[in-house]
Amino acid sequence: MNTSVLKVALRTLVRDKTYALINVAGLALAVACCLILGVYLRSELTYDQSHVNHERIFRIANQFDFNGKVDTFPATSVMLGPMLKDDNADVQAFVRVQGGGGGGGQRFIKHGNDGYYWDSVATVDPNIFEVFTHKILYGDPKTALVDPTSVAVSHKFAQKYFGERNPLGETINIENGSEFKITLVFDDLPENTTLKYDVLFSMTQPQFTTPDDITQRERRLYNIGLFTYLLMPEGYDARKFADVSKEFFDRHMAEMGKQLSGKWQAWLQPLDRIHLYSDLPNDISTGNRYYIYGFIAVAVFTLLVACINYMNLATARAAKRAKEVGMRKIMGSTRTALVAQFLTESVLLAVIAVTLGVALVEAAVAFTPIDQLFGKQISLAGLGSPTAVVAWIVGLALAIGLVAGLYPAFYLSSIVPVSALVSGTKGGSRNSGLREALVLLQFTISIAVIACTLLMMRQMGYVASMSLGFEKENRVIVTMRGLDLIERREAIRTELLTNPNVLAVTWSASMMGGGFPINVINLENNEGVLGSTSVIHMGVGPDFLNVMGMELLEGRAPGEQDLGQGPGPGFSAIVVNETLVKHQHWDTAIGKRFEIGPQKGTVVGVVKDFNFTSVHNEVTPFALYRINETFPNMPPQQRPFNTRTLAVKISGKDVPGTIAHIRSTFANFDKEHPFEFKFLDDSLDQLYLSDTRLTRLIAIFSGFCIFIACLGLFGLASFTTAQRTREIGVRKVLGARTSQIVTLLAQRTVVLVLIAAPLASALAFFAMTKWLGGFAYRTSMSPLPFVGAAMAGLAIAYATVALQSLKAGRAHPVKALRYE
Predict the structure, then answer these.
(1) pLDDT tens digits for range 317-347
(2) Are 492 and 646 in contact (CB under 8 A)?
(3) Which residue, 744, 728, 751, 666, is CA-closest to 486?
C-alpha cells in the first residue's frame, strides 16, 4: 500500500474527530456484540461435531399409536438396537445409553471417606469409545467396559477423588455397596455435546443382556427406557429407514400390536441435528433453533446498523470533502485512486473499531457475568484455534471496511471537479433519498427488535404467572434414597410435623416437572368394553392432593384402602385428570374399570388438569395412584436404588429455621447421604431457565442495536443541523421559537419512524408467531407491544434528534448568520 494514502486517511480521521468517534464507537460496539454472539452461535451450531463419526451416527426416535392416541419418544426399547443389528447389514454398530443427561438419575458415589452426588451418570454398551470420539487419558478403550464391574470416569471425576494422579485400578462404591474398578479415564466432554456424562457403567450387567428366546426379546420391544444410537455407512440416507422400520414392525411387533391395538414406527435423527431440531417430549435438554435465528438476526442487524451509520455519515460529509475531491481530480488523481483512498479510510476505521471491539469482548469476559448470562463459557477461543481467531478478526475488519465504505467511496469519487470547486456538493443532496431509506431501515430493525423483546418478556411473564393446577410456593422437596429409609417414611413424617411451620408432608414416585413413567393401560369405555391407550402415571403418598394444592373435581383421593396386598406396587384405584376423561369421552369417570399389567381396579376420582411438565407441552392423560413403599421380595442389591420424593408444605415463616429442622430430621434417619433439598418453585423455574436467559440476552443485545442506531442518527442530525445553520438563524430573527426549530429539524425523522412502525410490526409478528409456536400455552398477540415498540422508537428517535437540534435552536442568531 502507498504510505501516503495511509497518512492521508489517518489525518482525515484525526481532523474530523466527531465523525471518527461516532463511527468507531458504533462499529466497535457492533463488532463486540457480533464476536460474543459468534462464539455462542458457533457453539450451538456445531453441537456433537467433535465426534469424528458424527455424520454417520443416528439416534432412533419412535412413535407408538394405541387406539388413535399417538405418543413419540426419543427413548427406545433395550432390545431394539441388538435386533436391528441382527436384521440389517447397514447397521454397522449400535450403542445404547441409559442416562447421560437423559434421566439416568442421580448417584451417590464414594471412595473411602469421600462421597459426592453425581447427575452425569450413564450406563452404556462397551463399544461407546469406538463409535463416539473421546480423548483417552488413561486405559484401553477397547476393553475398558467389558467387565460388568468396571467403570470409566471423566477427568473431572478423577480429579475430585484422586487429584492429578492416575486412578486406574482404584475402586468406587455406589449406594448398594457394589464396588466398581476404574479402568479408563477420558477427558471432559466438550460443552456442546448432547450426551453429557462423568461416569460410565457397563451395559454388560445382567439386566441389559439379550435373551436367547426371540419371544422374550419381542415382548420387551414395547417397553422403552434408553437411547439407541446407530453407526451407519458413509453417506447413508436416513429416509431409507422408513422401510426398515415397517419391515421390523411386521416381523417382530405386529402380533403383539394386535393384542394391544397398537402400531409402531421409527425414524433416524442425525446426531448433529438433535440439539436444535429434536422437538420430542421428554428429550435430553435441547436447544431452541428459534433463539438461534433471533441471535443471528440481532448480530446481522447490529452490524448492518453500524455500517449504515458509516454510509450515512460519509455521504452527509460530502459537502466538506467535495472541494478536496475536485482539487485531487484537477491535480491528476484518477477515480480508482480516489476509491482506494476512501476505502483505505473505511478499512482503517474498521481495523480500529475491530481492535476496540476485541478489547470490549475481553473486558466483558473479565469484568461481567457474561458466562452466567449465556449459561456457558464465552471466550474468543471458542471461535477455533488462534490462527482461526485471527482470521475471523482480520476477515471481519476487511468485510466491515469494504461493506461500509464501498458506496461512499464510489459516491465521493464521482463528484464533478468544477461544480465541487465552485459551490461544493451541498450535503450530498443527490443522496438524501438514499440516506432516508437507510434511516428507515435502521428504525424498522430497531422497532422490530423492541416489539420482539416486549412480546418475549410478555410470554415469560405469562408463563411465570399462569396457574399450573397446583401450588408450587412454600414446598420443600427432599429425595429419600433406599428402601431402608423409605420404609421409615411415617416416622420421618411424624418427626417433621413436630415443627409448627411444617403444615403437611407427603411423598411421590416422581417430582413435578421431572420424568414420569408411561404405560399402556386398558380403560373401560362408555359401553363397558376395555380398550388400550397410553397414560403417564405417578404413585403418590397420603394427602398428596392437599399438600400440592390440587383441586379434586369429582370422587375422592387415593387412600390406604386402595393399596394392593402382597409385594410390589399393587393398587386398586386411580385418580385421573380432566384430559384423560375427555380423551375417553366418558359420561362419568367414577367407577370405570382399568388394567395396568397385573393391576386392576376402578377410577375413584377426577382431578383438575395440572401442568406436570413444562408449559412448552400440552397436558396429556395422567393417572395418580396410592404407592406401595414396601417390597419384601426386592433383591438386597436393588434396595438402595429405590427413591421417593418427599414434599414438605411449609408456612413460609422462619424458613431458615424450618429448613434446619428438616435437615436435622434427615440427619437422624439417614446417616449415609449428605442432606440436599430444593424448593419446588425453584426446581420448576429451571424448566424455563433457557427461555428466561435467552430472552434477557436478546433484550440486552437489542438495546445495543438501538443504541448504535441512535449514535448514527445523532451524528446525522449534527451534520444536517450544521447545513441548515443559516436557515435556523434567519428563522430565529423572524421570531421562531426554539421548540419550533426542534420540531422542524425532527419532523422528517418522525415521518420515517411512522413509516417504519407498520413494517417493523409485520416483521415482528411473523418472527414471534414462529417463536410462540414452541409453547403449548402462550399469551395473546395483542396490538399493545407493537404500539409500545412504535412509541418507544418514536421517542428514541425524537429525543436523539432533539438533543442535537436543541443546541442549534438556542444559539444566538447572529452567530448562525455569520456561519461560513
Answers:
(1) 655 666 666 666 677 677 777 777 777 777 8
(2) yes
(3) 666
pLDDT at site 638: 75
Residue (of 238, 209, 268, 228) closest to 94 by Cα position: 228
Write the pLDDT tens digit of every residue in 62-97.
999 888 888 899 999 999 999 999 999 999 999 999
Mapped to the 3 state alphabet, what secondary structure does 192-211 carry?
CCCCCCCEEEECCCHHHCCC
Beta bridge mates, 58: 230, 270
Of 73, 70, 76, nearest in space to 262 by CA: 70
Apex CA 458: angle with CA 457 and CA 460, to 5°?
Answer: 65
- Quick one: which H or E segment has residue 80? helix 80-87
| Residue among 621, 609, 626 at smallest CA distance from 573 | 626
Q: Does position 730 have pLDDT exceeding 90, yes or no? A: no
560 and 542 in contact (C-beta within 8 Å)?
A: yes
Q: What are the pLDDT digits (tens) for 242-286?
A: 999 999 999 999 988 787 778 999 999 999 999 988 888 778 777
Q: What is the pLDDT of residue 797?
A: 82
Q: First CA to last CA across the chain, in angstroms?
A: 36
Q: Tell me the residue ranges of DSSP E strands in 611-681.
A: 622-626, 643-650, 677-679
Of 514, 511, 438, 451, give the one whose Cα is nearest residue 477: 511
Query: In whole angstroms, how far apart are CA 52 and each of 134, 307, 384?
Result: 10, 39, 17
Q: Which of 62, 400, 376, 396 is nearest to 246 (CA)?
A: 62
CB 445 within 8 A of CB 708: no
Q: pLDDT tens for residues 434-487?
A: 777 878 888 888 888 888 888 888 888 887 777 788 888 999 999 998 888 888
Q: What whole-number distance in Å separates Cα of residue 718 and Cα of residue 721?
A: 5
Contact by Cβ (8 Å): 515, 282: yes
- Which has more confidence, 630 or 553? 553
Phi-psi region of 469 (alpha: psi -120 to 50; beta: other; left: phi over 0): left
Exposed, middle or buried, 395 (CB in 10 Å: 0-12/13-18/19+)? exposed
- pLDDT at 421 (0 to 100): 55
* Weakest-pLDDT range from 50-59, 456-465, 500-509, 521-530: 456-465
According to DSSP, residue 381 is labeled G
Percent of the chain with pLDDT strictly greater than 90: 32
Cα–Cα distance between 446 and 711 in angstroms, integer?
13
Residues 6+ apart with CB under 8 A from 454: 785, 788, 789
Q: What are phi and psi of 227, to 5 degrees?
A: -95, 140
Give yes or no for a contact between 110 and 132, defined as CB atoms under 8 angstroms apart.
no
What nine digits make up the cell of 806? 436543541
Host H or E run for residue 420: helix 417-423
Describe the crossing of helices 432-465 and 784-810 by its angle, rounded to 10 degrees: 130
| Three-state secondary structure call for residue 270 | strand
| Joined grid coordinates for residue 453 | 423483546
648 vs 533: CA distance, rounded Å: 33
Which are the contacts of 607, defined by CB distance < 8 A and separation ≥ 6? 545, 550, 551, 552, 553, 575, 576, 577, 578, 624
Give the range among 41-55, 100-114, 121-135, 489-503 with minimum mean pLDDT.
Answer: 100-114
| Rounded-to-integer distance, Cα 788 and Cα 100, Å | 45
The string of pLDDT tens digits covering residues 779-818 is: 888 888 899 988 988 888 888 777 766 666 666 565 555 5
In this prediction, residue 564 has a pLDDT band, given cuts at 50, 70 and 90, of low
Cβ neighbours of residue 620 under 8 Å, at least 6 residues apart? Answer: 536, 579
Short-list 352, 361, 363, CA closest to 310 = 352
